[in-house]
Amino acid sequence: MSKEEDGEIKELSISGQYIYGYFRKDGTLYKVYQPKTKDTKFIKVRDYIQGMDQLTMDKDYLVICSSLKDLMTFVKLNFRNAEAIAPDSENTLIPEHVIEACKRKYKNICTLFDNDEAGIRSMNKYKERYQIPSVVLEMEKDLSDSIEKHGITKVRETLMPLLSNILNPKQLVQ
Length: 174
Hints:
- There is one protein chain.
- The protein is α/β, with parallel strands linked by helices.
- Helices cover 33% and strands 20% of the residues.
- It has a three-stranded antiparallel sheet, with no helix packed on it. Strands 7-6-8 form a three-stranded parallel sheet. A two-stranded antiparallel sheet has the order 1-2.
- A hairpin with a 2-residue loop joins strand 1 and strand 2.
- The chain folds into two domains: 43 residues, no CATH class; 121 residues, Dna Topoisomerase Vi A Subunit, Chain: A, domain 2 (3-Layer(aba) Sandwich).
């Protein structure tokens, strides 16, 4: 496999059991997942904002989640007027030109990252750099863990008022 890193093409050899690829709609590989490998569980092949290909751009609100797992979890909450994306990792800032394009399209944007030190730090970076407010769900470490422990209905009921403080509550309801 080859990947671009710092403007150079690097060749990688990957072998082992349970190797999965994450692909864009156009078939382009952007990440490799090896669940049984500790040191190289994820290999980033190229920059990609998860969920961008799935945006319809016909909703009023955008939620930036911390991971693909939490993005998919947010979608399952079925807020009718909000879409979601996620950077490669919580520690990766979405590029400014993408944020500015989203700000022109959506009425409001917020972050919903993990409820831990790294997540809070990342939400603060988005607030400082892009003036994007954050929602902190204090139930469990992250959104998917909250649903696993408390159920989708309880998480939705808890998250709704938190989002409503930032996003228009009349537009966000079921």
